[in-house]
Specification:
Number of helices: 6
Distance between the termini: 40 Å
Order of helices and strands: HHHHHEEEEEEEEEH
Radius of gyration: 19 Å
Shape: elongated
Largest sheet: 6 strands, antiparallel
Number of strands: 9
Strand content: 15-25%
Strand order of the largest sheet: 1-2-3-9-4-7
Helix content: 10-25%
Length: about 210
């Protein structure tokens, strides 16, 4: 029997609510509590507390559960496709500046992926190493890009693309004085653009 002492400390990157259908989605995937917990690297007791709202999942937990259940983070969070627009018009793509980069939302909000058009100026943020859960895909529209993945440096030109695990330490920098322009897709929870794309923010550890 579990102790009724004070609850365990929550991770810093938790969500404000837990989707009420977490258990239903596990059952839809024909997984027992034990099997799903094992696949997600959790204890059955921990997963049970997530499903009953006694605990809140961290972002990596939700990403893992979505993959295991064959669904999206958005569905885990209780959102439905009908609530979101499928088309984003060019006129509605407002630019957002962060860390010297400029971003335009190129996909619908609230999904498990975030699609962006990104302008990377020369000499901006090239020394920041990014490491975070998820995957990234990028496509060079204009200019030349220097992409460092782990210990390997790649030079990409217009029409080149890269698809990699975001847990691989990576750096992105424009090679040309005129900068470079990219299409960028993350398989991450929707977050503020600076957190999602620029890696560590002030006060965080790289």
């Amino acid at each position: 029997m579990e102790s009724m002492s004070s609850p365990e400390p929550e991770p810093a990157d938790v969500l404000p609510v837990v989707a009420p259908q977490l258990r239903a989605l596990r059952r839809r995937a024909s997984l027992t509590l034990e099997a799903a917990a094992r696949a997600a690297g959790l204890s059955p007791a921990h997963l049970s507390r997530l499903e009953t709202g006694q605990r809140q999942p961290s972002l990596p937990m939700l990403l893992a559960l979505a993959r295991i259940y064959g669904t999206t983070v958005s569905e885990l969070l209780g959102e439905t496709v009908a609530e979101r627009d499928a088309v984003v018009r060019a006129a509605d793509m407002e630019p957002t500046a962060a860390g010297g980069w400029t971003y335009w939302q190129a996909g619908a909000a609230g999904r498990g992926m975030q699609a962006l058009r990104v302008q990377v100026p020369y000499g901006s943020q090239g020394d920041i190493v990014r490491v975070h859960p998820g995957e990234e895909w990028l496509y060079v529209l204009r200019g030349r890009l220097r992409l460092r993945l782990g210990d390997t440096t790649h030079h990409l030109g217009p029409g080149d693309s890269a698809h990699f695990d975001s847990l691989t330490p990576h750096r992105i920098a424009a090679q040309d004085p005129d900068g470079t322009e990219l299409l960028f897709v993350h398989t991450l929870l929707q977050s503020p653009t600076a957190t999602l794309c620029l890696g560590p923010t002030p006060g965080e550890t790289p």
